[in-house]
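$ ./design --mode recover --in tokens.txt
reading tokens...
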């Protein structure tokens, strides 16, 4: 498949925010033809009825997963919820490449997935072999992948900000404090009382304090980078905005390291990267400046507390934290220009 000029792609779970955003991005990709678009709960309805902003895709009807001949697809993007994605993926033909946006294949150790999500894993060996698709750190592995597990949105923002410094041994990986904030779309499209306008607007609150399910995913990748087990203090907050992810991370420098070395490591790691940008000294990210894009903006500031730095990362949770990163992974897998279909300016205001 690598090097093909055009692929047919299908989308599972197209009626959620992740599915809709993936379709929006796929629609402008010059080398992808959109095939089956599935959403069992909405099967039979016109896609444009469910999502009028996707009217440019024509009179396409949402299909039931069971009614599709998946042999006609080259690639399937699974935007199904955690737990149900693996049910469908394990039934797809072996020839189909899968890019999964759920958590079902993110963990190399399926027992950690089971403890975190409370779901029995149906294919532990396949989860071990899946490529963890944080694109900037997975390019070599992506070249031969047949199953890619895209990172969660919080882990994407957090790991892009931290991994270069952990790999370089410049910060104390076991003393990290991660203060994270997300727009309401990060919770999905399902009806939840806490996400109602009157409940979410004009306020800000922490949730899943001390036990958020993205913490073990972050720890898996930091532990791999550090070469030893790492645990983090991770606290997410819900912010009354539609999309965006913002992480503020407090880190202790190791003995002998300073803020200048940390900045140099970040800048070196992302020099020439099309989507990850380290901001100039004195600048800090704003979710408005990455909204609707596949970009990640990172800043580093020396704390007034000696030996400590503050790292800040911002992404759009639905693009770089979801559908955009998934397409970026496919571009790498195919040997195409990495920015293909993703060269989007930010939406402002």
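writing sequence...
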């Amino acid at each position: 498949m690598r090097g093909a000029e055009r692929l047919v792609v299908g989308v599972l779970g197209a009626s959620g925010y992740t599915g809709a955003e993936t379709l929006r991005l796929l629609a402008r990709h010059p080398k992808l033809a959109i095939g089956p678009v599935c959403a069992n709960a909405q099967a039979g309805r016109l896609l444009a009825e469910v999502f009028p902003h996707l009217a440019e895709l024509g009179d396409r009807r949402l299909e039931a997963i069971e009614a599709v001949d998946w042999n006609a697809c080259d690639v399937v993007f699974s935007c199904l919820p955690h737990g149900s994605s693996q049910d469908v993926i394990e039934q797809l033909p072996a020839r189909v490449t899968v890019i999964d946006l759920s958590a079902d294949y993110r963990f190399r150790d399926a027992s950690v997935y089971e403890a975190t999500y409370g779901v029995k894993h149906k294919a532990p060996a396949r989860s071990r072999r899946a490529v963890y698709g944080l694109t900037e750190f997975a390019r070599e592995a992506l070249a031969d992948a047949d199953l890619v597990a895209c990172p969660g949105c919080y882990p994407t923002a957090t790991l892009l900000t931290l991994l270069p410094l952990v790999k370089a041994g410049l910060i104390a990986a076991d003393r990290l404090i991660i203060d994270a904030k997300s727009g309401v779309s990060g919770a999905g499209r399902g009806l939840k009382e806490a996400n109602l306008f009157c409940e979410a607007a004009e306020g800000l609150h922490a949730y899943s304090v001390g036990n958020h399910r993205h913490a073990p995913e972050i720890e898996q990748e930091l532990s791999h980078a550090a070469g030893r087990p790492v645990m983090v203090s991770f606290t997410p907050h819900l912010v009354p905005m539609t999309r965006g992810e913002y992480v503020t991370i407090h880190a202790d420098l190791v003995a002998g390291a300073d803020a200048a070395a940390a900045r140099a490591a970040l800048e070196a790691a992302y020099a020439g990267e099309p989507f990850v940008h380290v901001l100039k000294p004195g600048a800090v990210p704003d979710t408005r400046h990455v909204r609707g894009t596949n970009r990640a903006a990172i800043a580093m500031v020396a704390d007034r507390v000696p030996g400590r730095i503050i790292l800040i990362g911002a992404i759009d949770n639905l693009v770089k934290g979801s559908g955009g990163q998934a397409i970026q992974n496919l571009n790498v897998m195919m040997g195409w220009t990495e920015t293909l279909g993703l060269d989007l300016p930010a939406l402002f205001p």
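exit 0
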